[in-house]
């Protein structure tokens, strides 16, 4: 028989285990609006039995671990979809800016105070080309008409002006995209550094056992942010550290940043990534 003190210890361990479970539940509730947080739960196990004359006798319950409810496969799929979504969003934004630069935008502004709708069409290359072809057709119909000839010259000058304006806008767009690419590369390199630092902190925190769940959540958040900027592959080592590869090149291995992303001028104002 465990005796009085054994019974008291059994009750104390039970209360401590349940207190830990309540604290973890409170931690889950406190992070209900934290998108980077993965829910945690307490895993309980029976404590070591005490040998007696009639066989081993149980001594209650104790906390075995605090585990995250997270699936590695799903995390990888989320990162892959974020990478695809980030690529599509960046491409869409660039094409939308190019469309605006070309002037091929039809803007409808609805007046909330009335039932009327104001439609404003931006004049673009298509309209100027149509005007030039119409002017040629008029000249072909009446070659001796001075009015038609002057209209043709006017339309040709307008189209040339539009071409020059469009070229300048596209040059400005190219410079803007280069600036955005440089900013994304800087952000990606900062995220790689943060992931390496978190690998270091996680390895130190888990050296004596257990899991650094909150640090792992933060690292996963950084990986998802990086996925929006580049397509990456990850692998996990036995000590919980993470390796990150981009384009087949290992960028982060454990606590070390082995390589970084860089931009270079390929000539003609075209900025590329390596």
Category by helix and strand content: alpha+beta
Characterize the largest beta sheet: strand count, sense, and whether it forms a barrel. Answer: 4 strands, antiparallel
Distance from N terminus to C terminus (CA atoms, Å) equals: 71 Å
Strand content: 15-25%
Strand order of the largest sheet: 5-6-7-8
Low-confidence stretches: 110-122
Q: How many strands appear in the DSSP assignment?
A: 10
Helix-residue proportion:
55-70%
Q: What is the H/E order?
A: HEEHEEHHHEEEEEE
Number of helices: 5
Quote the average pLDDT. 83
So what's the overall shape? elongated
The whole-angstrom Rg is 33 Å
Q: How does this structure look, described?
A:
The longest helix is centred in the middle third of the chain and has 60 residues. With 274 residues, the protein is of the alpha+beta class. The protein is elongated, with a radius of gyration of 33 Å. 55% of the residues lie in helices and 18% in strands. The protein contains five helices and ten strands, in the order αββαββαααββββββ.
């Amino acid at each position: 028989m465990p005796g009085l003190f054994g019974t008291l210890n059994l009750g104390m361990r039970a209360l401590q285990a349940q207190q830990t479970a309540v604290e973890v539940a409170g931690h889950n509730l406190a992070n209900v609006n934290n998108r980077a947080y993965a829910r945690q739960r307490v895993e309980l196990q029976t404590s070591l039995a005490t040998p007696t004359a009639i066989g081993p006798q149980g001594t209650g319950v104790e906390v075995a671990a605090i585990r995250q409810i997270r699936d590695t496969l799903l995390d990888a799929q989320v990162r892959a979809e974020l990478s695809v979504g980030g690529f599509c969003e960046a491409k869409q934004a660039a094409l939308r800016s190019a469309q605006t630069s070309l002037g091929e935008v039809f803007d409808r502004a609805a007046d909330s105070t009335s039932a009327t709708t104001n439609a404003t069409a931006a004049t673009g290359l298509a309209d100027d080309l149509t005007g030039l072809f119409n002017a040629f057709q008029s000249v072909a119909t009446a070659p001796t008409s001075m009015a038609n000839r002057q209209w043709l010259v006017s339309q040709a000058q307008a189209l040339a002006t539009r071409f020059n304006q469009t070229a300048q806008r596209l040059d400005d767009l190219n410079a803007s995209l280069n600036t955005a690419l440089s900013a994304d590369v800087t952000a990606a390199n900062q995220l790689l550094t943060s992931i390496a630092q978190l690998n270091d902190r996680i390895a130190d925190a888990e050296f004596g056992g257990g899991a650094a769940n909150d640090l792992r959540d933060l690292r996963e958040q950084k990986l998802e942010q990086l996925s929006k900027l580049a397509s990456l592959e990850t692998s996990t080592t036995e000590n919980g550290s993470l390796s990150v590869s981009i384009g087949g090149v290992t960028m982060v291995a454990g606590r070390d940043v082995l390589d970084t992303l860089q931009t270079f001028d390929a000539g003609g104002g075209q900025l590329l990534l390596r």
